[in-house]
Amino acid sequence: MTIKELLYKVPILATAGDMEAVINHLTLDSRNVGPGSLFIAVRGTVTDGHTFIDTAVRQGASAILCEEMPVNPEPAVTYVQVQDSAYTQGLIAATFYGHPSRKLNLVGVTGTNGKTSTATLLFRLFRALGYRVGLISTVQNQIDDTVIPATHTTPDVITTNALLTDMLKHGCTHCFMEVSSHAVVQQRIAGLHFAGGIFTNITHDHLDFHGTFDNYIRAKKGFFDQLPASAFALVNIDDKRGMVMLQNTAARKESFSLQTLATFKGKLLADSLFGLHMEIDGKEVWFKLIGRFNAYNILGVYGAAVLLGEDPEEVLTQLSGLMPPPGRFEQVVSDEQIVGIVDYAHTPDALQNVLETIDGLRQADEQIITIVGCGGNRDAAKRPIMAEIACKFSDKVILTSDNPRDEDPMAILEQMQAGVPPIDFKKTLTLPDRREAIQKAVSMANPHDIILVAGKGHETYQEINGVKHDFDDRQVLLEAFANVKSGSVDTP
Ligand SMILES: CC(=O)N[C@H]1[C@@H](OP(=O)(O)OP(=O)(O)OC[C@H]2O[C@@H](n3ccc(=O)[nH]c3=O)[C@H](O)[C@@H]2O)O[C@H](CO)[C@@H](O)[C@@H]1O[C@H](C)C(=O)N[C@@H](C)C(=O)N[C@H](CCC(=O)O)C(=O)O
């Protein structure tokens, strides 16, 4: 495709060089440039892509898209100046790949918690309903049975268009994707045509990136503002920001609720460690998912499926058979009936949801032992809050590391300790080594006690100083169950 064809409908400020130059590859990263590449220079959070234009040219780039023209452009290379290269990237990627998002039903899911569960449940539901389906999620991307490792919750828009193209080649009719607030702000969903958007909830998270809670809300809302009139915008109106999401959208406004009148109204009848019993649209159904937060996920998934034209009764039948996604309230039970629960809860709200759920389901003599940490190089404000929540609901708490990245693990843990109420000092232990923390919890547990290992969920690594070391909470729990003699009470 020529650069001129690629720029169809793109507002351009200036050009230099041959507009008939042929482009066979798009990239944001100078390290991936080769002959035929169009290098898109984007201003990032760490560095400015414009500083790599010369490198891209040396590596054979055919064209450069930028916001600022270089002082000495290379005559053999085509340069295009635009107002906003991050946004333009989305329009170009859609044209380059032939607008794949218009050729299937692309549904985006946004919200602080529940994105992965909702997108994954939709993916599994539509497969169970007989469709070929794609998934773009934090845990993994998937085209039917083929798993493609994920690097982001929402990839860059070039990668997304490439994934959607592969999905179409495999006959997919639907794709369910997570839409993170980072992605909205960084234009990673620009130019994508959505058939629908779902809002799960919004709570304190990512303030390191967005600065204020208002900015974070605005970022989420930006997704709904982008939806076309042909799409549906389905929001959880039990979250007080649900209606805000709908304010400026052109899409059809739809809602779901466990508490009030909504397009899709559900009622939670019973909640146990074995599943949920709900009434949806007047029908009683059992689900294998656990916890009130999953009742919301189920309702959102049900609503989206019905809005996509599926038969409500068939949707409920298929949904009732689905299991939780990996690392989402995943249970690992020892021979002695110590219940390990591995959950991705890494925000205050998610941790509170999981702990409230466990607290509501346990018997009076069953202890909750919580293992929790907070990531390095990320929102530090949540550290004391998460420790406080863990203490509020648990009989014992072990503060430990969760991807300290470039930070000193002990410094993160000290910030968490600041949230431990003095009355809870004696039930709290600090063990920076996560493996040791899990082993300690198992050694302290009695049969039927519940050990919550929070934060990593499906992740299979611990990131320390830029190196990802193999670490899987589920595996380490199993090893601890096998190695440590259960029943030996070792109170901190
Ligand atoms: C903070 C953040 O969101 N960063 C994302 C952002 O990178 P950046 O702005 O920091 O990029 P940069 O390093 O400043 O570089 C600027 C530009 O120069 C280019 N460059 C850079 C170096 C070089 O040698 N050559 C070159 O061309 C880069 O490709 C980039 O285009 O844009 C990149 C391209 O899209 C992303 O890969 C990158 O994600 C980083 C790796 C990341 O960790 N992001 C996280 C925070 C994130 O996005 N998380 C959300 C989920 C959040 C949640 O809900 O939990 C997600 O969607 O995954």
Automatic annotation (TrEMBL):
All residue ranges annotated as the Mur ligase N-terminal catalytic domain in the record: 23-74
Keyword Nucleotide-binding listed: yes
Enzyme Commission number(s): 6.3.2.13
Pathway(s) served: Cell wall biogenesis; peptidoglycan biosynthesis
Binding site for UDP-N-acetyl-alpha-D-muramoyl-L-alanyl-D-glutamate: 28, 30, 153-154, 180, 186, 188
Residue ranges of the motif Meso-diaminopimelate recognition motif: 402-405
Cofactor requirements of the protein: Mg(2+)
Xref: InterPro entries: Mur-like_cat_sf (IPR036565), Mur_ligase_C (IPR004101), Mur_ligase_C_dom_sf (IPR036615), Mur_ligase_cen (IPR013221), Mur_ligase_N (IPR000713), MurE/MurF_N (IPR035911), UDP-N-AcMur-Glu-dNH2Pim_ligase (IPR005761)
Binding locations of ATP: 111-117
A molecular function GO annotation: ligase activity
Residues reported in the UniProt entry to bind meso-2,6-diaminopimelate: 378, 402-405, 455, 459
Residue ranges occupied by any Mur ligase C-terminal domain in the UniProt entry: 327-457
Principal EC category: ligase
Post-translational modification: Carboxylation is probably crucial for Mg(2+) binding and, consequently, for the gamma-phosphate positioning of ATP.
Residue ranges occupied by any Mur ligase central domain in the UniProt entry: 109-304
Reactions mediated catalytically: UDP-N-acetyl-alpha-D-muramoyl-L-alanyl-D-glutamate + meso-2,6-diaminopimelate + ATP = UDP-N-acetyl-alpha-D-muramoyl-L-alanyl-gamma-D-glutamyl-meso-2,6-diaminopimelate + ADP + phosphate + H(+)
Keywords from the named record: ATP-binding, Cell cycle, Cell division, Cell shape, Cell wall biogenesis/degradation, Cytoplasm, Ligase, Magnesium, Nucleotide-binding, Peptidoglycan synthesis
The family this protein is said to belong to: Belongs to the MurCDEF family. MurE subfamily.
Biological function: Catalyzes the addition of meso-diaminopimelic acid to the nucleotide precursor UDP-N-acetylmuramoyl-L-alanyl-D-glutamate (UMAG) in the biosynthesis of bacterial cell-wall peptidoglycan.
Protein name: UDP-N-acetylmuramoyl-L-alanyl-D-glutamate--2,6-diaminopimelate ligase
Source organism (scientific name): Nibrella viscosa
Protein encoded by which gene: murE
